[in-house]
Specification:
Radius of gyration: 43 Å
CATH superfamily of the largest domain: Rhodopsin 7-helix transmembrane proteins
Oligomer: single chain
Number of domains: 4
Shape: elongated
CATH topology of the largest domain: Rhopdopsin 7-helix transmembrane proteins
Distance between the termini: 102 Å
Helix content: 40-55%
CATH class of the largest domain: Mainly Alpha
Length: 551
């Protein structure tokens, strides 16, 4: 007899005790919503276990029915708290809001209400009785038709929770699957015991299947809380990651319906009246395209990337990622307008400068006709005018749509074109760039011109200019050298600063800027005389013959 009492009572008492302790552990740090729901849910298991125990030891049928009503009320609250805990714990957005939960409460409350008024209609129990067995009482009801409503309600919520947990487990990172697995196993244990309880004969009060199921579930959760800290480190799910992504993310199922959308997508696609924009018309054959959406009277531009989700050869849906490119389009339009204005201004200035050059050339011709034809100063002035005219023509060429980088030119030719624009007749010129080709003739020629012009202007004892190149791995290094007075060590970087120097202060500054804009670098590292090294990266140079290799 004593052993039978232990078998019948101890599981319920242990469930009650463990539930109180686990609920307290969860409540100690209740800053997170899922911990609060978990604590209340576990605490409700304690009185439920005691109620189930009371149903076995009370011999008054009216009190037993009252305990059954309390049992259903506790189970209703427990199911609702379980659903809120699972949705909060898995960071599952959306459906478990107040309106939905209130609807579930109303639906679930029908059963205890029918039980409380059963004596009027006998729809819940058609007949009840108590049977005494080994010191305990067995409640033997004959269920009515409406009891199935409670079974569908309870099993439905348990199945929804199990589905959410399993889906989160499948999508969670490997190290974060632990929490989902423990909660899912506990829930499965309780669900299985509930189903077995419903279909068992209930003829032995020592075998309380529902109490044993609760006891097993609580033990599993107890293990998870104490030994695996599942409440301290909730799993970080894919859904949680997507909810915090800046871009809108939408999952369209195989029937064209929205299966999931994150917070950013909801903000993009729903207007102030709560109407969703016609996403069904967005599908395209290409994986990436752009859309113009009008929301609240304002146009916005979006880049849409579509990826088909595949699962074992099937296509369960499509993922759309929406990125806001409105600002980028505004910047592009503003840049286009600025470029148009600059092009117009350049055309006007080029036209005016060409007219001024023609006029100045006419004056020089008149001076030559007045007996000063052989004056070297007039000849030098004509050369300057010719260079100016050439620069204007180059500006006209660069205004076209053809990218300069696509034009490959001989570095040797570019160097001589630059040198011939200066008075270098008294200098020893050594150009060894044969075979080397570099994109953008005008830019490279301009670099050579600026370097040579700097040498001629500042090299008072200048007698030699040298241009050579070598290959360093996949890069090319062009070396420009002269034997002028050189650049002091403390000024080797300053000479590239804008405004530095005793002339315009722009020559070497523009040289470095031109180099940067075409992916090149330039430094000065001379010891006797000036020495500039222009480094050209891979893909921006080529040679038609074997180039010198660095020794």
């Amino acid at each position: 007899m004593y052993e039978e009492w232990l078998i019948a009572i101890v599981p319920n008492l242990l469930v009650a005790a463990f539930s109180i302790e686990i609920g307290y552990l969860a409540w100690r740090d209740s800053s997170k919503p899922y911990r609060r729901y978990f604590a209340f849910m576990i605490w409700l298991i304690s009185p439920l276990a005691l109620v189930l125990l009371g149903e076995k030891v009370v011999d008054n049928i009216d009190i037993v029915i009252a305990l059954c009503i309390l049992e259903y009320v506790l189970e209703l609250a427990l199911l609702l708290l379980l659903l809120k805990f699972v949705t909060e714990y898995t960071e599952t957005p959306g459906f478990a809001n107040r309106k939905f939960m209130f609807g579930l409460f109303v639906l679930g409350a029908i059963s205890p209400l029918l039980l409380a008024t059963n004596s009027w209609h006998h729809l819940f129990y058609t007949k009840v009785s108590l049977t005494y067995h080994n010191g305990f009482y067995i409640f033997n009801p004959t269920y009515g038709t409406v009891v199935a409503l409670w079974g569908i309600f309870a099993i439905g919520i348990l199945a929804i929770c199990q589905f959410i947990l399993m889906a989160s487990y499948l999508h969670a990172p490997k190290n974060d699957k632990r929490g989902f697995a423990i909660v899912s196993v506990a829930l499965f244990f309780i669900t299985a015991s509930t189903i077995i309880y419903w279909f068992s004969s209930k003829d032995n009060p020592l075998l309380d299947i529902l109490a044993l199921g609760l006891f097993g579930g609580v033990l599993i959760v107890y293990y998870g809380v104490f030994w695996r800290n599942i409440l301290d480190a909730p799993p970080f799910t894919i859904i949680q990651l997507l909810e915090n992504v800046y871009d809108g993310t939408v999952l369209i199922d195989e029937n064209g319906r929205v299966a999931y959308w994150n917070a950013a997508a909801r903000k993009i696609l729903v207007d102030d009246q709560g109407t969703m924009l016609p996403i069904g018309t967005w599908f395209r054959d290409q994986p990436e395209y752009e859309l113009i959406l009008t929301k609240d009277g304002k146009e916005t531009f979006w880049s849409v990337k579509a990826s088909v989700v595949t699962d074992v050869g099937k296509s369960p849906g499509t993922v759309l990622v929406l990125s806001d490119i409105t600002k980028m389009r505004e910047y592009e339009n503003a840049l286009t307008q600025v470029n148009k204005k600059l092009a117009i201004l350049q055309s006007v200035n080029r036209h005016d400068l060409r007219n001024d050059i023609v006029a100045l050339g006419g004056y020089l011709e008149l001076l030559g006709q007045n007996g000063q034809k052989g004056d070297p100063r007039i000849l030098q002035a004509k050369k300057v005018l010719a260079r100016m005219a050439e620069r204007i023509d180059q500006l006209k060429d660069q205004q076209g749509d053809v990218p300069i980088e696509k034009i490959w030119v001989e570095a040797q030719k570019a160097a001589w074109n630059a040198l011939n624009q200066l008075d270098v007749s008294k200098l020893n010129i050594n150009v060894q760039l044969e075979g080397l080709e570099v994109p953008s003739e005008q830019l490279l020629e301009r670099i050579f011109y600026n370097l040579a012009e700097n040498s001629v202007r500042h090299g008072k004892v200048l007698t030699r200019i040298s241009l050579t190149y070598r290959r360093e791995n996949d890069r090319c290094v062009i070396t420009y050298e002269d034997d002028g007075k050189g650049i002091p060590t403390e000024k080797k970087e300053l000479v590239f600063e804008k405004g530095y120097g005793d002339n315009t202060g722009m020559g070497l500054y523009l040289t470095r800027e031109i180099a940067r804009n075409t992916g090149m670098t330039i430094i000065e590292n001379g010891t006797a005389g000036a020495r500039f090294e222009l480094t050209i990266p891979a893909g921006r140079w080529r040679d038609s013959g074997p180039a010198p290799v660095k020794k």
